[in-house]
Amino acid sequence: MTWWHGTSLVLGRGLREQLRSKTFKIVTGVLLLLSIGAVVVPRLITGGPTTYTLATVGRAPVALTTALGAAARSADFRTTYVERPDEAGVRVAVQRGEATVGLAGDRMYVPERTAGPFPGIVAQSLLRIETLRVLTDLGLTSEQVARLDSVRPPAQVFVASAQDQGRANVGYAVGLVLYLALLFSGQVISMTVATEKASRISEVLLAVLRPSQVLVGTVLAVATVATLQLLVLAVPVLVGAAVTGSSWLPAVAAPDLALAITWFVLGFCLFAFLYAAGGALVDKVTEAGTAVLPVTMLIIAGYMLGVIVVIGNPSSAWSVAASLFPLTAPLTMPIRWASGEVPVYQLALALLLTALAGLGSIWLASTVYRRALVITGHRVRLAELFGRGGGAGARRSR
After folding, report:
1. Is residue 157 situated within a structural domain?
2. Between helices 344-372 and 254-281, what is the axis angle to 10°?
């Protein structure tokens, strides 16, 4: 039996158990409902374009309805009109909420609240109509008036802290998704390892397989389930945003997407095996959460550094250090990379250091896993893991 064949057997067994569990079904169902709700609820609340109502004495002038129609198309709102016989009727319509704005002669009635930008739009349209009339009365030809009317204000360019908003969104998303994935799946990994140790299943597996095969297969099984749950959460949101044309879903360059996937894999590999090692240290399943608390605190600290320090000042010494240190780089470098101020050599160095730390994590976890699984009856002490005799001493402690 090859190493990969044995690992695949553990992976298949782990997937079957995870997918059949009630916890997986409940969590996946909740994630699916949350994802669908994130797409449907905002649409139900907004209910499409905002509608404003204009009350006028008699029929609204054609020039005004034309101007408001052009403004509505550019600003994505709808305008309806109500007619009243006199100025008093227009005022009452606004007071009763039957109209957003009332127009009677040279007076415009506006409610104290909830009018929004519509009064300004109406006033600007009336000013434009009157300006064109005055210019025509002064003798300007229709071509000259049209040229004046075509003058537009300078285009607005929104400037963000990031040079590329698409890259920024990817960077922030990588940090958040990796943070959530590690917190949830890390606990599952440690609990799985602790359960197998407490029930002596691991001893049965180790009778025919290597410890590294059992360890890697278990981690890959949980990682696969976590990825499926992330897809259940993300796909409906992304599809809904693409169909509705949401502006928060910008085009993302393929290199940035590939870099995001790389950081996710490196970060998950780095911490997932540490969670597995922590689960092997305990004798009771209820102690697993306490055993992996240092790893959890490290993940939380890394994410807080990214949110508080890196976003606030990507070029500071603390930001640079946090994005290069292997145990915090997967959570901070993607966010710092979003600022567009990271030299390529620092990105390459962070990737290299994190990859080496990931290999070290696998080696450390394999060593702890191999020696800790055979120690039962009490919580494993460091002296039993790394003292003289290693596994032999551990076996004698049983």
Report:
1. no
2. 20
H-helix segments, 199-287:
201-206, 211-244, 254-281
The answer on 337 and 390 residing in a single domain is yes
Q: Are strands 107-109 and 77-84 parallel, antiparallel or unpaired?
A: unpaired
In a domain, 155, yes or no: no
What's the mean pLDDT when you consider all of the chain? Answer: 78
Which of the listed residues 117, 149, 181 is the one where a domain comes to its end? 149
pTM, two decimal places: 0.63
Helix (H) or strand (E) holding 51: strand 50-57
| Domain end position, chosen among 149, 178, 202 | 149
Per residue in 35-88, pLDDT (tens digit) is 777 666 666 665 556 788 889 988 888 888 888 887 777 777 788 899 999 999
The amino acid occupying position 39 is V
Sign of torsion, CA 370 371 374 379? negative
Q: What is the domain extent for residue 118? A: 50-149
3-state secondary structure at position 381: coil
pLDDT band at 348 (very low <50, low <70, confident <90, very high): very high
Tell me if 102 sits within 8 A of 93, measured CB to CB.
yes
Secondary structure (DSSP) of 272-305 = HHHHHHHHHH-SSGGGHHHHTHHHHHHHHHHHHI
Mean local confidence (pLDDT), 156-178: 60
Quick one: 143 and 178 in the same domain? no
Nearest to 268 by CA among 307, 238, 224, 311: 224
Output the six-digit token pair for 62. Answer: 């054609």
Q: Are residues 21 and 80 in the same domain?
A: no
Give one DSSP letter per residue of 137-163, joined into a string. HTT--HHHHHHHHT--PPPP----SSS
